């Protein structure tokens, strides 16, 4: 199964109408394609997790826009869209002491699913998941 490293951006936004639209529009105006997105909320604060097609331009665009954000290496894992695939991956990571901090869908097509894993040790996690 395919395992690769990608770059994730975690952007702080206000939890109110239009906040997500501003972030996405800023990126879209620079022709940056959002490959995966997840949104979390803690109180009045929102957090947008993004994976894009151009990490360098994404970072520059967010900086230029004055956004508060962090960047993280994440592991993308592809697998057949069947029962217990996610459970198997989670078990494999746990057995090697790698903690899953967040997980969200990158894409799903033709019975193949690709998931973004935010791990406490992404390099180790990628090695564990590549051992098949």
List keywords for this structure.
alpha+beta; Alpha-Beta Plaits; 2 domains; six-stranded antiparallel beta sheet; elongated
Overview of the structural elements:
With 132 residues, the chain is of the alpha+beta class. It has helices at residues 19-29, 55-64, 85-95, 122-130; strands at residues 3-14, 34-42, 45-52, 69-80, 100-109, 112-119. It has two domains: 7-71, VC0802-like; 73-130, 2-Layer Sandwich (Alpha-Beta Plaits). It contains four helices and six strands. The chain has a six-stranded antiparallel β-sheet with strand order 2-3-1-4-6-5, with helices on one face. It is elongated. It starts with a strand and ends with a helix. The mean pLDDT is 94.
